[in-house]
Amino acid sequence: MKQVIRQDILAKLKHLATQENKKQALEEDMLSRLYETNQWRQANVIATTYPMTHEFDTTKLMKQAFLEGKTIVIPKTKKRGEMDFYVYHEDIELELTSFGVYEPVDSQLYDKSSIDLMIVPGVGFTQEGKRIGYGGGFYDRYLTDFKGSTISLVFDEQLLDELETEEHDKLVDALICARGGTL
Hints:
Layout: H1 2-17, H2 20-35, H3 38-42, E1 45-47, H4 59-67, E2 71-77, E3 83-88, E4 94-96, E5 102-104, E6 109-110, E7 117-119, E8 124-125, E9 131-132, H5 138-143, E10 149-154, E11 174-177
Parallel strand pairs: 1-2, 1-7, 7-10, 10-11
Antiparallel strand pairs: 2-3, 3-6, 4-5, 8-9
């Protein structure tokens, strides 16, 4: 069932990515609302991903974070569905993984307890913060003992009315949705 949901939403996101002006306008709206949150304002260290073309373009929020003197960390996956976060700036070399994700080649490992805000990616979300990812469980494992805030930036195409979750699934604290408002 989750695989069918993933395929359906990913097809919608890939279609949205072909509508560059619309996608960029939605992203700008969501980013302006993200920057107004206390979570963003108070964060010194922000974790996010380097985006794939069909995903939310996080490079824009990275640039804003740099302008504000914040530190950006991005994930690097390990074996057994685990990952760590490493410092990222424009001089850090990235490599494309077999998952189709860019990860830092050589960078400083960042301690989980020092991350203030995590922009959590995903494929689908409910208004309650339930999420379905890409199926590897990386974020569910990482968020198990994560103490910082979590926010996801979500297009309408990613919103689900309901989603069955399992015990290990971790909810996101807040969603900023394209259709307006923070959930």
